[in-house]
Design brief:
alpha/beta; Aminopeptidase; nine-stranded mixed sheet; six-stranded mixed sheet; binds ligand BES; binds manganese (II) ion; binds zinc ion
Length: about 500
């Protein structure tokens, strides 16, 4: 993806740009920037003529305005100043971005960060502007799209009319890096499972490692059987496609510093196995590696930002298929931790691969904290919809930090409880535990299962079944929750 050249300049020269972007509130509530450029009268007139009332996310591109030393003026509606919400602001910036994309603008002076929503500051707005603008360059252009003509964005340079200081620079850099990370996440999750196999995920990690200097280690089926990953290998035994454990290490901190471990569910296609899923929308189960794709996207962002911290990514990757070799309901397997599992439903496969990855991550890397990311339960979509990810964990401070990172980036999550009552739902007469806990509280019992493998470490689980993918007309991967995790990691650096 082509990178936008972002700049900061509190006193820019308008003739250096071919497009000026101004935010406009309703009822002539203008901001100081508009006054500085001498177009307040024009904005008033447009309001009186009912041509542009500054409604949230309304845009108007004007050409060759007489009093302006710049061929394009883009007005972006922000609605009522008193009522500007974060969501309203983001929709306005998205509309701005779309309008710029459909114009010939190449060098833009953007002042929309001056209209910050309540409770936010300019750093936040700069972050969101750079993220949304860079994100508008994303285009799923895999060869399998055939005739699809890839986007060729002409926007080159965006200057924010703000002071050039470290805080502002970091906000812009983080917004841009998050967008670049999201693009990788989206590419991987959008890609059909006949292309995006565990081997493809592994190759992508190796390539990323070569570019960015990450150490990448791959485990193969024979090794993992030998090591005793009976749970992960039980899911993988139904497919002829080789499973992989993909480990990526980023070392930005001191060698002895315990890393953050990110563990991402990498089911490249989830048929349900012998507990076969119904046919409707089954195609969408190609995004059941959304957790894995998120981990890769975060590492892509780390490659850009190079924070002083250590992070490891651990990705168990396999297909979940029905076959003559597939696991069957009632089969009992022994996990890497030694605990045995009765597999009552082969469609609850995510937790089966994650439990071994969680044990492996702890044994191999002694992380200071672990966050797993998984498209784990349909129940999470029923509980929370598509707007927030579910978060559950055994350490409230860690959960709070994730909630906070979600708020800051507007890539939000919402906490669900854990507790002994739900844990009891996993009782099995034939093994240490069953892999399902009934329909009630499905997201919680799934996390409760994982909690049995993370007792010795600070751990949180993100259920992204609802947030990693959009259905409907804009069907496709969302790139979430890369922004939230990048923010979380950046916050950990300063600890
Ligand atoms: N990958 C699915 C969860 C899922 C469903 C993600 C819909 C995204 C959209 C997971 O492997 C699964 O099948 N979970 C089951 C668990 C059940 C059998 C306890 C589910 O949610 O139905
Ligand atoms: Mn499943
Ligand atoms: Zn699944």
């Amino acid at each position: 993806m082509k990178k936008i050249q972002f700049q900061l300049n509190a006193k820019p020269t308008l003739t250096d740009f071919n497009t000026l972007v101004l935010p406009v509130f309703t009822h002539g509530q203008s901001i100081s920037a508009a006054a500085d450029f001498g177009v307040n009268g024009l904005i008033d007139a447009l309001d009186k003529q009912d041509d542009f009332k500054g409604k949230t996310a309304q845009t108007l591109m004007l050409h060759h305005v007489a009093q302006l030393d710049c061929p394009r003026l883009l007005l972006v509606g922000m609605g009522d100043q008193e009522k500007l919400t974060e969501k309203g602001y983001l929709s306005a910036i998205q509309a701005m971005s779309k309008t710029l994309e459909n114009s010939g603008a190449t060098q833009v002076l953007d002042t929309c960060h001056l209209a910050t929503p309540k409770g936010q500051n300019q750093s936040w707005s700069l972050y969101q502007n750079s993220l949304i603008l860079q994100r508008s360059f994303y285009d799923y252009s895999h060869e399998s799209r055939g005739e699809h003509k890839a986007k060729n964005p002409h926007l080159n340079q965006v200057c924010f009319m703000a002071e050039d200081n470290t805080a502002h620079q970091q906000s812009i850099a983080q917004g841009q890096a998050s967008a670049i990370g999201m693009a990788l996440t989206q590419d991987l999750a959008n890609m059909p499972s006949n292309f995006c196999t565990p081997t493809y995920l592994a190759d992508t990690a190796v390539k990323l490692g070569q570019q960015a200097g990450f150490k990448v280690t791959l485990l193969e089926r024979a090794q993992m059987i030998e090591m005793g990953m009976g749970s992960f290998m039980a899911v993988a035994q139904g497919t002829d496609t080789p499973p992989k454990m993909i480990c990526i290490e980023y070392q930005g901190g001191a060698a002895e510093q315990a890393p953050i471990a990110l563990v991402g569910k990498g089911v490249t296609f989830d048929t349900g196995g012998i507990s076969l899923k119904p046919g409707a929308s089954m195609d969408e189960m190609k995004y059941d590696m959304g957790g894995a794709a998120t981990v890769m996207g975060v590492f892509q962002a780390l490659a850009e930002l190079k924070p002083a911290i250590n992070v490891v990514g651990v990705i168990p990757a396999t297909e979940n298929m029905p076959s003559g070799n597939a696991i069957k309901p009632g089969d009992v397997v022994r996990s890497l931790s030694g605990q045995t599992i009765e597999i009552l439903n082969t469609d609850a496969e995510g937790r089966l691969i994650l439990c071994d990855a969680l044990t492996y991550a702890q044994q191999t890397y002694q992380p200071g904290l672990v966050v797993d990311i998984a498209t784990l339960t349909g129940a999470c979509i029923i509980a929370l919809g598509h707007h927030v990810s579910g978060v559950l964990g055994n350490d409230q401070d860690l959960v709070n930090q994730l909630l906070e990172a979600g708020k800051t980036t507007y890539d939000r999550c919402w906490q669900l409880p854990l507790g002994e009552e739900w844990d009891e739902q996993l009782k099995s007469n034939f093994a240490d535990m069953a892999n399902i806990g009934g329909r009630e509280g499905g997201t919680i019992t799934a996390a409760q299962f994982l909690a049995r493998f993370t007792k010795q470490v600070k751990w949180a689980h993100l259920d992204i079944a609802g947030t990693a993918w959009q259905s409907g007309a804009n069907k496709g991967a969302s790139g979430r929750p890369v922004p939230m995790l990048v923010e979380f990691i950046m916050q950990q650096v300063n600890k």
